[in-house]
Amino acid sequence: MWKWIPAKGRSGCILTGINTDKLEVGSIREGKYMLQMTVWDKLLKVKWSFLNVYGAAQEENKDEFLAELARFCDTCKDPILVGGDFNIIRFACEKNKNNGVHKHTDLFNSIIASQELIEIQMTGGRFTWSNNQEFPTLEKLDRDLVHKSWESIFPTALVYKLPRELSDHNPLILTTQSNVP
Questions:
Q1: How much is the pTM?
Q2: Which residues contact 77 (CB under 8 A, 6 or more apart)?
């Protein structure tokens, strides 16, 4: 099953794919910057939520994005996985240049802490985005965050960064299995 939220202006869009052999999709809720799906894991017999985000790329819309993120997380009562392109770094080390910390970094980290979210470890490199210049700016804008209740269901989850081919972002693959995809 695929769900699509079209692009607004020059910014990207959200495309979410669900393997319906393993997961059954329940409710779907759309926001301006995110898509939330409640899913039923057919094998484990457990319900959880997936929140796929595409954070505002434009500075003037980041507060609106972060408010929506907090609202969606607040209303979710199931174990939650939050993943996608947040367009905000969390720490200065997530950028290869000295002007790393963003003015929205503290608010972003406060939302993560207040929602008790944990970042899933990513292998394959530190950065997920490049501006594709001769001396590129590299940043980690893409990530997967989970509530501790989701982590207890999938304790071996890992995120793998794949090579960029067409986009300025590296695709990420999340696996709940302990083997490399």
A1: 0.90
A2: none
Distance CA 30, CA 127 (A): 28
Question: Tens of pLDDT along 26-82?
Answer: 999 999 999 999 999 999 999 999 999 999 989 999 999 999 999 999 999 999 999
CA distances, 61 to each of 29, 45, 159 (Å):
20, 38, 28
**Tokens 């174990």 — which residue?**
79
Helix orientation angle between 105-114 and 62-75, rounded to the nearest 10 degrees: 0
**CA dist., res. 52 & res. 81, Å (int):** 8
What's at 137, amino acid-wise? T
For residues 112 and 105, give the distance between their C-alpha atoms in angstroms, rounded to a whole number: 11
* E strands in the chain: 2-5, 14-17, 23-30, 34-41, 46-54, 80-85, 117-119, 122-123, 129-130, 138-139, 142-147, 158-161, 172-175
- Distances in Å between the Cα of 107 and the Cα atoms of 37, 59, 104 are 25, 14, 5
Question: Which pairing describes strands 138-139 and 14-17: parallel, antiparallel, or unpaired?
Answer: unpaired
Closest C-alpha to 119, from 129, 108, 130: 108
